[in-house]
Amino acid sequence: MQSILFEPVASPYLVPFDASFRIANAATRPPADAPPKKVREAALAAAVERLDALQRKLHAANRHALLLVFQALDAAGKDGTIRAVLTGVDPAGCQVFAFGAPSAEELDHDFLWRVQRALPERGRIGVWNRSHYEEVLVARVNPHLVDAQRLPHRPAGEALWDERYASIRDAELHWARNGVAILKFFLHVSKDEQKARFLERLEDPDHTWKFSAGDLAVRERWSAYMDAYERALNATSRPWAPWYAIPADSKSHMRRCVAEIAVATLERMKVEYPEVAPAERAELAALRERLRSE
């Protein structure tokens, strides 16, 4: 069995490691017995406060990092979730990267190059808004994008994606072995809820800028994207880099789930402030007395 930093946090939204995940059966709404919105918001606030305290220990220990990866279709709530979960956490302890279409420089490298450069430093929480998974999601649904990458060797058919899944698994295992705890969140919004949010954007002048014709083009290929997500999550959810398919129709439920999974992960990593050696403690005591005597 591969060595990992922690046992993945148990959750009804944890994507199994045996390729049995079926997106058609994955929830987009909270369970019927979920607490009311005010309770969820209070739980989120408590989780963020705890996350801030744990991040300070993570920074002080300076041995591990936490990477939060977010993938979703448009209007699922990636930006809002990142803001909600990290608000109240020391900004100096976080690194946030949003990955759009690859630049010319990025296309001159392998598809993992640009994310490798964005890995969080030890002691920090890294956040990726979209990620290397675009190369097995968007690129799979739009294979002409692969043409622009000028691959020296392009396997035919499914073999290309199998190779990329293998590369992702190997890379994430390498990162985990070197101290990065990886959590991947698929924010699973329903087609009906996405439509409602798109209409809200189009009717709100402050949010219209977030909508483009490309959003509808993606929506028209909903089934293809769902298939791509199901394949990618099954191929790459592993104990050292688990996927969580979080229901996204309720923003308060989604944000609470993400925050609590992040907190539980750091708790399982047992991050603590470094212990002060006896000799250092004696020296500090002497310095304290020196200050008091001034």
Structural notes for this entry:
The protein is α/β, with parallel strands linked by helices and 294 residues long. The protein has a single domain, classed as P-loop containing nucleotide triphosphate hydrolases (Rossmann fold). Helix content is 47%, strand content 11%. The protein is built from twelve helices and five strands. Strands 2-3-1-4-5 form a five-stranded parallel beta sheet, sandwiched between helices. Helix 2 crosses helix 11. The mean pLDDT is 94.
Q: Average pLDDT value?
A: 94
Low-confidence blocks of residues? none
Shape: globular
Strand order of the largest sheet: 2-3-1-4-5
Gap from first CA to last CA: 59 Å
Number of strands: 5
Helix count? 12
**CATH fold assignment:** Rossmann fold
Order of helices and strands: HEHEHHEHHHEHHHEHH
CATH H-level homologous superfamily name: P-loop containing nucleotide triphosphate hydrolases
Using only C-alpha atoms, the radius of gyration works out to: 21 Å
Q: What's the CATH architecture name?
A: 3-Layer(aba) Sandwich
